[in-house]
UniProtKB/TrEMBL annotation:
Domain of life: Bacteria
Transmembrane segments: none
Organism: Mycolicibacterium frederiksbergense
Name of the protein in question: Precorrin-6A synthase
Enzyme superclass (EC): transferase
UniProt pathway: Cofactor biosynthesis; adenosylcobalamin biosynthesis
Pfam family, one: TP_methylase
Domain Tetrapyrrole methylase: from-to ranges: 3-222
Keyword Transferase (UniProt): yes
UniProt xrefs under InterPro entries: 4pyrrol_Mease, 4pyrrol_Methylase_sf, 4pyrrole_Mease_sub1, 4pyrrole_Mease_sub2, CobF
EC number: 2.1.1.152
Alphabetical list of CDD domains matching this protein: Precorrin-6A-synthase
Length: 250
């Protein structure tokens, strides 16, 4: 039966790749990668770099290949959950066709997930849908998340003593506000600006890469700096991945 590895490759730095992930990389014949346009070519390039670094080449050269899949357009209007469901469904059909045509009946393929496959990543949900079209088995190799890198770079614990931490999105932060500590991901609108000025923020972008950016302080002190730095970085690179931790003032 066809097999698929879902491999968490960490948040940017090839040194974050685990020994378990390296074993899975060396077990893979076909790597499937989503082509998200020129602005994100470097994300595919990093995946290739990781493979070149960690996969042992045989006497006839590398025993693997990359198959890049065109990412379907996501609708810009409509009810949020339905838009995402439709987008995932379109991806699943593309993935199913690729697995069936590019991978032999007993072949092994892989999807390389940025960070960890369980954290705000759609790979596992889509593979469940792919299973409706083509038969295969799969496993999941965890990776170092952007949250771990963020707290390590700022040298801070994720939580206050005995206190919980919420992992949420910018949209949810705007709708529900902040109580205690929260990690915010997928925030294109710098939603921390709606928090009280005394709220502590630890912000990072391109974590684990040579372009890494870090800011720490209160929303009132450095919020405008983060907004400006984020806009400039996004213009320069054409894309941005940022994550931040908020903590209410006591």
């Amino acid at each position: 039966m066809r097999r698929i590895h879902v491999i968490g490759i960490g948040a940017g730095d090839p040194d974050f790749v685990t020994a378990q992930a390296i074993s899975a990389l060396n077990d893979t014949q076909v790597f499937f990668a989503m082509d998200k346009g020129e602005s994100k070519d470097e994300l595919v390039a990093l995946r290739r770099q990781i493979c070149e670094r960690y996969i042992s080449a045989g006497p006839e050269g590398p025993g693997y290949r990359f198959v890049e899949l065109a990412d379907p357009q996501r609708a810009k209007e409509g009810e949020y959950r339905q838009v995402v469901a439709d987008w995932h469904g379109a991806r699943a059909r593309i993935w199913a066709q690729a697995i069936e045509t590019e991978l032999g009946p007993d072949g092994t393929g892989a999807f390389l997930a940025w960070g960890d496959p369980s954290l705000y990543d759609s790979t596992l949900r889509i593979l469940e849908m792919v299973g409706e079209h083509v038969e295969f088995e799969y496993d999941v190799i965890p990776g170092i998340t952007a949250i771990q890198v963020l707290t390590a770079r700022h040298r801070i614990p994720l939580n206050d003593v005995g206190e919980p931490v919420l992992i949420t999105t910018g949209r949810r932060l705007r709708e529900q506000g902040l109580s205690g500590s929260a990690v915010v991901m997928l925030d294109a609108d710098c939603s921390f600006q709606q928090c009280p000025p005394q709220t502590r923020i630890w912000w990072g972008a391109y974590l684990g890469t040579p372009d890494e950016l870090l800011y720490a302080g209160t929303v009132g002190e450095i919020g405008d700096e983060i907004v400006a730095a984020r806009a400039e970085a996004r213009t320069r690179h054409g894309w941005i991945m940022d994550t931040y931790l908020l903590r209410s003032a006591h």
